[in-house]
Amino acid sequence: MEPEQLNQLIKNRRSIFPEVYIEKTIDRSILVQILENANWAPNHKHTAPWRFKVFRGKALERLGDYLAQWYKDNTPEEAFSDMKLKKTKEKPLRSDCVIAICMQRDPKESLPEWEEIAAVACAVENMWLSCTAYGIGCYWSSPRSIIEAEEFLDLKDGERCLGLFYMGYYKLPDIESKREPIEGKVEWIDK
Known about the structure:
4 strands, 16% strand, alpha+beta, 4-stranded antiparallel sheet, single chain
């Protein structure tokens, strides 16, 4: 890969939401490759803390049902919205795939927890860049409902969920993104 190809891939990475996903299946071999790319993220002491639970097919209905029920059970009456309930339930169904992003804490706690969270975030960025290369829309969502889903996700001791990674092919014109120049965010220390 030429450096300019990498630069463009990084600059073209976007959050693409399920509302614009189309009905097109992501081939399982592509999903496996995306997860394999996640597995190559940097991680201190080789703890490889990332864990993924992949929801597809009927499992997306179960995920939507869980999220909707959590919203019903945990939203005060004055804040409750039937429209939000409907959107919460349908969001997974608009996706071809939703991946629960989990972290397995090193049982020895041989490094600070933030380093393992950072390693999981690096793994997710590898997934995001891979999705961009394959023309797959995706985004990372971290609602309280999934952060508190230990039982639903059948998490093991030391494991916790850091969010959901929604994925799907999409039809959307190129979206230009802007960033403030890097010069205002860097201090050069040469002496």
